[in-house]
Amino acid sequence: MSGGNEALWLDARGRFEVREAGRPSPGPGQVVVRVRSVAVNPVDAIPAPFRRLVTPWVRYPTVIGTDVAGEIAAVGEGVTRFRIGDRVVGFAAGQERPRNTPSEGGFQRYVTVLERVCTGIPDAVSFERASVLPLALSTAAAGLYEEDQLALPFPGSTPPVRDEVVLVWGASTSVGTNAVQLARASGYAVVATAGRHNHDLVRSLGAEAVFDYRDRDVHLEVIDAVGGRQLAGTIAIGSGSLTHALRVVRGTEGDKRIASAYPDPITRLRALLERTRGIRVTSIWGGTPVVSPVGPAIFRDFLPEALASGRFRPAPEPRLSGVGLSQIPGALAELRAGVSAAKLIVTIDPEVQTS
Fold first, then answer.
1. Which of 101, 102, 147, 286 shows a CA-CA span of 20 to 30 A to 11?
2. What is the 3-state secondary structure (H, E, C) of the chain?
3. What is the pLDDT of residue 354?
């Protein structure tokens, strides 16, 4: 590959700077993606003093960012699924402990992505819409399918109808919208919670019943909706979700596992306490599928056909925050201020050529 590259570099003090980066070359099992759109995530917006606590292994300066969509610019040895020019969306794994390299950070014009967590996207799905998927999808998949989480059967095109319920607490979040769709694609009924103004969205993704998480007796409403069926598992997303999810699990039959997408020291402490009651609480790490069998099961085996057929919808809605790498810090500031039922994206100007 010839030509240059440009990246949004992050230093150890939390300062961003757009400057030159080496043009990556793919290794075995990798592709290089020319990035057209990126999405920003809460992990990208962590203030510098706390970033060391969340990802202490990261070496600086580095390039962060996970959610990328664009075109294949090069393929590495052993990659047969993709050709140069293919439209794809992928999980840029540069911040993950097993990878830990700026060349795999998403906030740049050309990024190296592992083929196992990359998916072709149909022409009907824009780069902007596709870029909302990777980390939220991976986090939902980790919670539902990893062996140390809920360990449910993988999704498929014609799943068996199962007489069990998956509870998704926080279903209008980025992780929640993906968890609802994945659970349905695994054959389960879904009972969910979300703000009242997002109920139609969550139902459109496949939930059979949705309740307002702010209602005083919401846990009783959820228990009633589950009825005589058994829980297959619970995903709890967001601050305060675990408290409510525990009330539901205590009041229903079935699997007592809760996968929490709000990992913090209190969650881990409560997990120890609840184990004495037969309830298993685990913390989800969204990057686990990068190295586990869950990654290819979702990105390689399930998602391409599901996107092409329209059975799986990129969600939540993308919301443009700017154009160009220099606009990403502003998008992160906007994210910190709060976003509901949408995901902030930044497009990389297609008119700027680096080769």
1. 286
2. CCCCEEEEEECCCCCEEEEEECCCCCCCCEEEEEEEEEECCHHHHCCHHHHHHHCCCCCCCECCCCEEEEEEEEECCCCCCCCCCCEEEEECCCCCCCCCCHHHCCCECEEEEEHHHEEECCCCCCHHHHCCCHHHHHHHHHHHHCCCCCCCCCCCCCCCCCCEEEEEECCCCHHHHHHHHHHHHCCCEEEEECCHHHHHHHHHCCCCEEECCCCCCHHHHHHHHHCCCEEEEEEECCCCHHHHHHHHHHCCEECCEEEECCCCHHHHHHHHHHHCCCCEEEECCCCHHHCCCHHHHHHHHHHHHHHHHCCCCCCCEEEEEEECHHHHHHHHHHHHHCCCCEEEEEECCCCCCCC
3. 39
Domain tally for the chain? 2
- The residue range of the domain holding 337 is 5-133+314-347
Instruction: Identify the CATH number of the domain in which residue 147 sits.
Output: 3.40.50.720
Residue with the bigger pLDDT between 313 and 240: it is 313
